[in-house]
Task: inverse folding
């Protein structure tokens, strides 16, 4: 477990717009660093020994179900929650004893939290005022920030006169206008309706790239995490389950939790039969034998799980690994079909396949296959 | 068919309820109404029948030095009580809602207690206390007593409002660099304004028409409006008392109403201003 958590980040190049600044400061301290952080409320430990180093200018997401400690970690960076042990550093500076108002962070909340009694201008100017920005610079900087969130000219409105999406854009402008070292986003899209959520997702990402600000984003929505992040920290019960790029955590989940939480993968219980240069042969609990391409060290007889995404399965294909079973349900979605297939022995999988032939009806037998490279052994 | 008897029963229940409600309102408001109406009576006797409409008794009241003195005393006492109670009450509510400290629950209960203890007992209690430490009854003691009486209500109002002011506003302000004090001044306090205003008005009213406790606490020679009325009633039921009562009613009902009207007018004004600015 611990080796996975402290695993060094892969030296993947960052997104183009940011890489210049980031690589120039390669020797500089990471933007945010968690070192063995533990957070406890009385006897309840919300976060266990969490370590993570966040590169300058990157977009990191803390992803997990509610109660996994992701918001607690974010609030610890903000200084709204005290840590029990370990250290948190922003820009190489330890901040354990620094009060929130001296941390130089931008904070965006789920429910916007715009000051209801202040105009948009006063809301956005608030941070500038307390960062000793000269009076003459305040108005132009507010105007620029509002332009960035595409709400130029709304200075004199009150928050109550704006829609949810507009309020959240103002909240974003308010959090970045004084150029904080880190932008902390606490489920900023959860209160918005579905259409607005997708629009804001793109917008937040765009603004983050434009400004090159380091961002920590908290969400329980895997789609948000996958689409926005440079790196994702998948969390469960106060621990980091896996830290990696979106493709890492999606295609190569480190634990069954990650595999299940991100996109509801099929988990097949199996026993290792033998291994050779190319991979491993395993016998599923249903009796079928499949091959898995993996460099994991396993010995014959080990109990393992095979993880296959529903989209990686194909009907009646020429692929080497074949599973057959009875169709429990067929959901025809136009371009795709989702089958629920009973493989016997209480083992039920989902297959999300392209429509090439007539849909197989419920109760009929079906054969699906997958490539040894398209699955993961856990 | 079967619904008919139930309907009839229901109708009678409603009629009875309506009748009882009207009775209760008559019981509550008839004396007040009678006082107001009789204060305009031209008769020399403070009772029905009316013999004509006149402002005579208000004029008499105005000429009565004792009444004017009592009115001024009450006004000052109520003003000081309102100001002090509002400041102390809001800060107490802030501590109770936003901070954790030892004995918080005990403090919360203690602050509310004066509202639960009968006023007479409170009156006697404070009197015994100042006697036992050999202090004379002074105006300060009277005002302190009024603060004691009004504080629970102000704290309760401020607490309720403070709970509804979400903490994220304060967190947002602090994340943008505002210190705790600046956050209180710029965010918490403005959002508390309705509670502060309501608390101040209530404290003023509680102090202004307090009778029983004031009887125990007032220093020799000082009369407040209610004690003055009592003193006047001892000698005769003059129509002057009706006029004085009407003044009291106007003050204690009118001030909160006026406050509410001003508050809602201000909000409307603000709204309209920002809407016009936005155009």
Result:
């Amino acid at each position: 477990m611990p080796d996975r958590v402290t695993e060094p980040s892969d030296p993947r190049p960052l997104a183009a717009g940011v890489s210049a600044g980031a690589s120039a400061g390669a020797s500089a301290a990471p933007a945010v660093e968690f070192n063995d952080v533990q957070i406890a409320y009385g006897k309840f430990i919300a976060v266990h020994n969490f370590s993570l180093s966040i590169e300058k200018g990157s977009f990191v997401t803390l992803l997990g179900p509610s109660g996994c400690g992701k918001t607690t970690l974010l609030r610890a960076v903000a200084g709204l929650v005290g840590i029990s042990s370990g250290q948190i550093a922003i820009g190489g500076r330890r901040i354990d004893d620094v009060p929130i108002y001296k941390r130089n962070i931008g904070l965006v909340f789920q429910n916007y939290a715009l000051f209801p009694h202040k105009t948009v201008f006063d809301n956005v100017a608030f941070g500038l005022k307390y960062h000793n920005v000269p009076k003459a610079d305040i108005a132009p900087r507010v105007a620029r920030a509002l332009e960035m969130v595409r709400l130029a000219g709304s200075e004199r409105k009150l928050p109550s006169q704006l829609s949810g999406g507009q309020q959240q854009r103002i909240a974003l402008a308010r959090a970045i206008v004084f150029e904080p070292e880190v932008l902390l986003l606490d489920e900023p899209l959860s209160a918005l309706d579905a259409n607005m959520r997708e629009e804001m997702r793109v917008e937040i990402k765009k603004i983050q790239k434009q400004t090159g600000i380091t961002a920590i984003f908290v969400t329980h929505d895997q789609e948000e995490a996958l689409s926005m992040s440079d790196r994702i920290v998948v969390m469960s019960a106060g621990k980091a389950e896996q830290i990696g790029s979106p493709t890492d955590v999606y295609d190569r989940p480190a634990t069954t939790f990650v595999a299940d939480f991100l996109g509801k993968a099929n988990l097949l219980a199996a026993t290792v039969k033998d291994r050779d240069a190319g991979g491993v042969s395993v016998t599923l609990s249903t009796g079928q034998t499949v091959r898995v391409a993996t460099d994991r060290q396993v010995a014959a007889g080990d109990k393992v799980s095979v993880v296959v995404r529903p989209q990686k399965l194909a009907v009646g294909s020429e692929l080497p690994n074949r599973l057959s079973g009875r169709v429990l349900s067929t959901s025809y979605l136009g371009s795709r079909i989702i089958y629920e297939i009973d493989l016997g022995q209480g083992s039920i999988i989902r297959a999300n396949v392209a429509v090439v032939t007539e849909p197989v009806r419920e109760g009929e037998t079906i054969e699906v296959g997958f490539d040894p490279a398209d699955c993961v052994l856990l | 068919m079967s619904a008919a008897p139930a309907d009839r029963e229901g109708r009678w229940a409603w009629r009875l309820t309506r009748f009882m409600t009207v009775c209760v309102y008559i019981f509550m408001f008839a004396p007040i109404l009678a006082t107001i109406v009789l204060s305009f009576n031209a008769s020399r006797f403070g009772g029905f029948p009316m013999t004509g409409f006149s402002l005579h008794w208000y004029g008499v009241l105005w000429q009565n030095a004792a009444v004017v003195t009592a009115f001024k005393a009450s006004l000052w006492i109520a003003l000081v009580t309102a100001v002090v109670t509002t400041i102390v009450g809001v800060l107490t509510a802030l501590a109770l809602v936003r901070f954790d400290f030892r004995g918080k629950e005990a403090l919360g209960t203690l602050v509310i207690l004066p509202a639960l203890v009968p006023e007479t007992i409170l009156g006697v209690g404070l009197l015994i206390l100042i006697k036992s430490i050999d202090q004379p009854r002074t105006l300060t003691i009277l005002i302190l007593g009024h603060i004691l009486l009004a504080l629970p209500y102000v704290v309760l109002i401020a607490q309720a409002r403070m709970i509804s002011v979400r903490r994220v506003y304060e967190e947002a302000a602090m994340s943008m660099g505002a210190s705790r004090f600046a956050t209180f001044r710029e965010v918490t306090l403005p959002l508390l304004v309705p509670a502060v205003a309501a608390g101040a008005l209530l404290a003023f009213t509680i102090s202004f028409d307090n009778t029983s406790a004031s009887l125990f606490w007032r220093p020799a020679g000082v009369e407040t409006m209610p004690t003055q009325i009592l003193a006047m009633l001892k000698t005769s039921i003059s129509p002057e008392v009706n006029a004085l009562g009407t003044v009291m009613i106007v003050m204690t009902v009118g001030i909160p109403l006026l406050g509410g009207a001003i508050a809602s007018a201000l909000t409307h004004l603000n709204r309209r201003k920002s809407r016009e600015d936005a155009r």
Observations:
- The interface with chain A takes residues 166, 168-169, 171-180, 182-183, 186-187, 190-191, 271, 274-275, 277-278 of chain B (CB under 8 Å).
- The domain at 64-165+195-278 of chain B is CATH 1.10.3720.10 (MetI-like fold).
